[in-house]
Design brief:
Number of domains: 3
Domain WHEP-TRS: 3-59
Family: Belongs to the class-II aminoacyl-tRNA synthetase family.
Number of helices: 16
CATH superfamily of the largest domain: Bira Bifunctional Protein, Domain 2
Binding site for L-histidine: 103, 252, 256-257
EC number: 6.1.1.21
Shape: elongated
CATH topology of the largest domain: BirA Bifunctional Protein, domain 2
Protein name: histidine--tRNA ligase
Order of helices and strands: HHEHEEHEHHHHEHHEEHEEHEHEHEHEEH
CATH architecture of the largest domain: 2-Layer Sandwich
Length: 443
């Protein structure tokens, strides 16, 4: 097998092929074929000798963002990168703001990597403070077993699965109507499906379904239920079961899933923001609005990579994709609705002056702070108004202002102002660095 560097180089090239096809909006079959080649290359980094996680890159085109939007995107990106790295991911030449996928390839004991993917989703959504969320989980084997025992013909499994997948957007009666009138199921079969897809729970539901007179007759469903029990036991160890629910209505219509599937959704709706000129011109797209759909999803796809292996080698894979564009939109809407101030700079302190002709003193103090490792800045004007300097801090989120005046210079102090509370205190020049570090570490 080629060494790791060669494989990563090949992954980079193949990733560019996928990116170009997506940017050109090529047909789905062509994109899927190239994605499968990329997955096959990724799988070569996996195997039985250790754990390998991967990050794919996607293309979203070029858009202009204002400082607030950039700050939000940077927060999301940094949160995702930090989480992925905590879990040992290898970021393969992924451009800023395009990293969103985490995959584990290789032959491992059941449900251990699957549980880690769910833990990753839990960590990211918790750290971003998007609000209350749930991670729905199910298993394609349970779904297929359920369809079989309810009397769905084999050739209709996939089409009925796609109808069940609409339950998050449609009422059961509408879904049932589609099954019966459009897909040709009997009302009796549809009602049996309805009884199952209304069930939600945790490990207790998996245990109960293993005793279900009908579902227990399906070996496929029982295998999925046993794995579901194992999954929840690991999730308990990871301390994330408070947000994970076993939901039999979750279907995820993609055919390549072979086992566990999951989807994260926010539990609350968002107020509609006032459209910006960019949104009115159609630049933002469908994410702008009040509805909140899924913000992450994924599952196990054990058969996909092997389909493209010349020797038919099976390479088990499980992964998750974070809906970063939707998360960006949600965070922007929340910030706008709450009039929340978004910090758009990492500057810790602005060096300001209360009187004219103090530029040299401001620059001298700024240099002292830089030399001490403090992130400081100064306005590029000889005699800026104090009000303008304070407003700049409020607009950009700079937490502290070090104010110099003639009296402060005589007394050997600096007036340190906390922007949020507008409280001021005289701090000796010798203690200024320590005081700034103390205050910024507490915030």
């Amino acid at each position: 097998m080629a060494d790791k560097a060669q494989i990563q180089a090949a992954i980079k090239v193949q990733g560019e092929v996928v990116r170009k096809l997506k940017a050109e909006k090529a047909n789905k079959e062509q994109i899927d074929e190239e994605v499968a080649k990329l997955l096959e290359l990724k799988a070569q980094l996996g195997g039985d000798e250790g754990k390998h996680q991967f990050v794919l890159k996607t293309a979203k085109g070029t858009r202009d963002y204002n400082p607030k939007q950039m700050a939000i995107r940077e927060k999301v990106f940094n949160t995702i990168v930090s989480c992925f790295k905590r879990h040992g991911a290898e970021t393969i030449d992924t451009p800023v703001f395009e990293l969103k996928d985490f995959d584990i390839a290789g032959q491992y004991d059941p449900m251990i990597p699957d549980a880690e993917c769910l833990k990753i989703v839990h960590e990211i959504l918790s750290e971003l403070e998007l609000g209350d969320f749930r991670i729905k989980v199910n298993d394609r084997r349970i779904l297929d077993g359920m369809f079989a025992v309810c009397g769905v013909p084999d050739e209709k499994f996939r089409t009925i699965c796609s109808t069940v997948d609409k339950l998050d957007k449609m009422a059961w009666e509408d879904v049932k109507n589609e099954m019966v009138k459009d897909k040709g199921l009997s009302e009796e079969v549809a009602d049996q499906i309805g009884n199952y897809v209304s069930m939600q729970g945790g490990m207790d539901l998996a245990e109960r379904l293993l005793q279900d007179p009908k579902l227990s007759q399906s070996k496929q469903a029982c295998a999925g239920l046993m794995d579901m029990k194992q999954l929840f036991s690991y999730l308990e160890l990871f301390q994330v079961t408070d947000k994970v629910v076993f939901d039999l209505s979750l279907a995820r219509g993609l055919d390549y899933y072979t086992g566990i599937i999951y989807e994260a959704v926010l539990m609350q709706t968002l107020p509609a923001p006032t459209p910006t000129s960019q949104e009115q011109n159609g630049a933002v797209g469908e994410d702008a609005g009040v509805s909140v759909g899924s913000v992450a999803g994924g599952g196990r796809y054990d058969g996909l990579v092997g389909m493209f292996d010349p020797k038919g080698k099976k390479v088990p894979c499980v992964g998750v994709s974070i809906g970063i564009e939707r998360i960006f939109s949600i965070m922007e809407q929340k910030a706008e609705a709450s009039a929340e101030k978004v910090r758009t700079t990492e500057t810790q302190v602005l060096v300001a002056s209360a009187q004219k002709n103090l530029l040299e003193e401001r620059l001298r103090l700024t240099a002292e702070l830089w030399n001490a490792g403090i992130k400081a800045e100064v306005m590029y004007k000889k005699n800026p108004k104090l009000l303008s300097q304070l407003q700049h801090c409020e607009e950009t989120g700079i937490p502290l202002v070090a104010i110099l005046g003639e009296q402060e210079l005589k007394d050997g102090v600096v007036k340190l102002r906390t922007v949020a509370t507008r409280e001021e205190a005289d701090v000796s020049r010798a203690e200024l660095v320590n005081e700034i570090k103390k205050r910024t570490s507490e915030s």
